[in-house]
Amino acid sequence: MTHEQRSMAANQQDPKWAAKVVRNIGQIEADFFHAAGPVSERIMAEASLAMQKVVTPPWELIENEWATQAVCPDWKMARGVGVGDAWLEVAEISADEEGYEHTWLAAMAQTGPTLLGVQLMFRRGLMDHAETILRDDKAVAALWEKGWARDETSAVLFVPIFSPAEKIAQAFEQNDLTGAVAPFAKALADALAAKSELDKLVAKVRAAAKAQ
Predict the structure, then answer these.
(1) Distance CA 158, CA 109 (A)
(2) How many CA atoms does the CB half-sphere of 48 hold within 13 Å?
(3) How confident is the model over 103-134, as pLDDT tens digits?
(4) What is the CA radius of gyration of the chain?
């Protein structure tokens, strides 16, 4: 952090809030690491199980260290490398320009400037072409009726995932997260149901890349 950034942070500081944080820093850090670790990890593990139930051929659900992805043979790269030209992925959609990290829990409950969604992703070589097409209202209009949304800052397309914080809290108290993670399965099911519309978008992006 530069001197200028430190000065800016100091000027933005709320003295009473800062004092409260300092007095409770032990509990705040313990709560944060519990939320970012065990709580979020359990949510995502059970969400994965819920989503697996709605995935049917030709789709396949893939789990890796950083994401849950739904891939389709129709969107594979010509040489069959990687997950494909495009795929669906559970991702954080953030309006936080500072780039601060948020827990999966906070994104799921939409308690800050971030949310979760099943997002349409493109490989690096297609992303610039995809952004242009995804900003075209006519190109994506058919998806609005299918439950899709667009982040106007980044132009990403996604189906939102939301579960109220109190519902998640009660699910943990009851040690049954079935209802709390149901929005993951619904969002993925809605995303998969729009395959024909998504196929057209992927085709447009591929064509734009080839025409370059």
Answers:
(1) 16
(2) 16
(3) 889 999 999 888 999 999 999 889 999 999 99
(4) 20
Residue 98's Cβ-count burial label (10 Å; 0-12, 13-18, 19+) is exposed
Phi, psi for residue 80 in degrees, rounded to 5? 70, 25
> How far, rounded to the nearest angstrom, does the alpha carbon of residue 109 sit from its chain's CA centroid?
12
| pLDDT tens digits, 9-27 | 556 678 899 899 999 999 9
Do strands 149-150 and 157-161 pair parallel, antiparallel, or not at all (unpaired)? antiparallel
Helices assigned H by DSSP within 83-177: 104-109, 127-134, 137-144, 165-173
pLDDT tens digits, residue range 38-94?
A: 999 999 999 999 999 999 999 999 988 778 999 999 998 766 556 789 999 999 987
In angstroms, the CA 133 to CA 140 distance is 8
How big is the CA angle at 5 (ends 4 and 10), to the nearest 5 degrees? Answer: 100
- At residue 93's C-alpha, the angle toward residues 46 and 190, to 5°, is 60
The answer to pTM > 0.85 is: yes
The region that residue 62 occupies, defined by phi over 0 for left and psi between -120 and 50 for alpha, beta otherwise, is beta
